[in-house]
Write a structure and sequence with these properties.
With 559 residues, the chain is mainly α. It has 25 helices and 5 strands. Among the domains are: 113 residues, no CATH class; 119 residues, D-Maltodextrin-Binding Protein, domain 2, CATH 3.40.190. A 5-stranded mixed beta sheet has the order 2-1-3-5-4. The longest helix has 27 residues.
Length: 559
Amino acid sequence: MIDSPVIAAATDAAQRRRSAFILPQCPPLVSGSALGAPSFGRPGGGGKMGSILRFDWRLWAPVLATAAVALAIRLYDIAGQPYWLDELLTLRRARLPLGELIADSFANMHLPTYYLGVRMLLGLDGGAGTLRVPSAFFGAATVGLAAALAHRLAGATAAWTAGLLVALSPLQVQFGQEARANALLGLLVMVALHGLMAIAADPAAASQRLTRPGVPRRAWLAYGLGTAGALAVLNSAVFWLAASAAALAFVVVAAAPHRKGLATNAGIALAAVLCLWLPWLPFVTEPVMRTAVDGFWIPKPTMESVSATLAAVYLFRAADVMQFSLIAPNWPWAADAVAVLLPALALFGAWRLRDRNRELVVLGLAILALPAALLLISLAKPLFIPRYLMWSAVPFFVLVATGVAGVAGAPGRALAALVVLLGAINLGATFDDERKPQWGSLVRYLASEAGPCDVIYLEGNTTHAVYDLSERALVFSGQRVRRVGAVAEAETAIVAGRRVWAAVGKVAHGRQRSEAAFVAALAGVGRPAETIRFGRDVALFRFEPASAARLDAECRRQP
């Protein structure tokens, strides 16, 4: 019979042989410091809430490095694309007098907070990039928070992976280069999520009276201020409020010994959020209800559009932010690999967190509640587009990173490198594509080439708005061409001897009329003498009358 020391030695050896294939357990989640981050000192140091004053470079290295990478990517060529309709509206609104800015924001179902911030940048002369730079910083900060949250859940490998995934996500990059509030909303939701995850991780501490020493007040504060701030930026943050309230309810129910204290503190936090948010509601309720009755600009969802939206948000597919269509990947095999790997790793990450049900449910609701709600609502009123889903992608990438970190040793590091590399390959299609229609170039061309009697025909109110806003944004001293919006006006102008220009191109969401159909509608004006293209999506047609020389001379004599 083999003696017990031999059995023990054989068992230890077998365990060591298996260790390369056993998935490591997630490290214990520390009820971190401000914003629910992990202890910034040695593990477990500084008390339960840790100390933000002691740097742990195992945490700070991925947080700072991935945020720096994200900022560099978002600042790259940030002014290289012209403003499109939504950004032109941002610029127009920010230039309004203060009272008109606020009224115009409410009338268009927007809260004025972001535009008040943009207003402070108008004096800086930095071109198109000036108003976009804040979004780049908001996006970079979101990346840092994603890395910090992943570090709490699964360690350094997860932190690097999550941070780089968010840094390289095509959709996150696109809106990190937009003069719109979406990147700020994503940052504020991540602040709130950090606080909520810290509460879920340590319900015993979070259930104590908030006036007692050692209670994680900063976690509650992060949740409350992040949620209230998000609600003060975009109305779509109401979906985060609903998801986070459901997550808080689950944490309260799941932490049986601490239910009373947790329910009290959760009630205080939600009451504070509502007190800060509800005063805004009367100003946006009427336009929201009017839009709900009259319809919205978002197209009805189809199987194709839903799958394209999900791919753009969660699966690293570059998409046209105006048309909601996917951009052809440079390397199709990389796009296919990501489409398989990321969902599988997210499921594996969820499996790793199966024994930490409170954190898993909070993270799961942050990922799933938004797309589920928008899909349901879209059955009646379409809302299912990438920008509205944007903030839910960050916790998804954190869950993916948790799955990556579950593969031990060198294979795990190789898997992390592979996932990040595939993400970088897919991001390339975003920068290779013409991301914004070149209406500004067309306006500049006409300012230098059009004569004093020329007119330009523009089809549709949106095209007129884009042209007008582009003209105002450029602030040039050249010729401003008279605009007409009816074919009959263009025909009258050409008969009178005026040169007629006609422009067609992508201006906003939805499909544009084809160039052939556009020119056919102008058959009464004549055949175009010249076609000038501005990028891929904008074309300008020149129609010449027989008596142009005589009329131009008459126009030049006019005061």
